[in-house]
Amino acid sequence: MHTIITIGRSFGSAGGHIGHAIGKKLGIPFYDNALISQAAEEEGYSKSLFAHAEEKSLFSFSSFFASSRLGYMDGGYVNDNVLFKIQSEVIRSIASKGDAIFIGRCADYILRDMDCLNVFVTAPEEYRIRSLEKSEGLSADDAEKLMRRKDRTRETYYNYYTFGAWGQAANYHLCVDSSVLGVEGTAELIVDFGRRCGKIK
Fold first, then answer.
1. Is 72 among the domain residues?
2. Any domain includes 151
3. Residue 65 confidence (pLDDT)
């Protein structure tokens, strides 16, 4: 049995940093969009298919050519559903080979038939806005606009491909407010929870 953790997150909640911290604590690989792209390339797909993929349901990927493995589609371009299928195949391939932590990309849905720990990380809007002001060098207004836009695209992407509800507590084993314990504390909490419920070996 592999240890597979999926982490959904609201924008500005440090979900990616928390996933990386969990990976360090457990000594298992961590996959965000960039590393899934790298894995896709190793599987024989063109890295450019994923390089600029934003989390939204109705893409305009006319600039992405199919890899030689797939050939040309839709008049020479990869359509949105094909791209999601490739992503799903890559994530399932990674999960079948060993322990892994996946950030976003509907991994909880893609791996729904596997024994995974599914987590959603969020934080109060005020906390996320302040975090984005610091990390992105934005004004409070611009940080809020960015947060809302990113949350909206993540929600739309997730709901479109999973027929579910992004961020709804019933979809996850654990939902956590990262503002309470911070990155390291939240990572420790998730690891402890996962061990207690038998999802982390």
1. no
2. yes
3. 34
Residue 140 is predicted with a pLDDT of 97
Which residues, 6+ apart, have CB-to-CB distance to 100 below 8 Å?
Answer: 2, 3, 4, 5, 28, 29, 30, 31, 94
Domain of 166, CATH number, reads 3.40.50.300
**pLDDT value of residue 47:** 59
- Residue-range definition of the domain harbouring residue 132: 4-57+90-196
Q: What's the token pair of residue 169?
A: 């507590």
Q: What is the pLDDT of residue 81?
A: 83
Residues of the chain with pLDDT under 70: 46-79
Q: How many Å is the Cα radius of gyration of the chain? A: 17
- pTM for the full predicted model: 0.84
Domain count, the chain: 1
The half-sphere exposure of 197 on its side-chain side, counting CA atoms within 13 A, is 15
The two most distant CA atoms of the chain are separated, in Å, by 51
Torsional class of 103: left (φ above 0), alpha (ψ -120 to 50), beta (otherwise): beta
- Is 108 part of a structural domain of the chain? yes
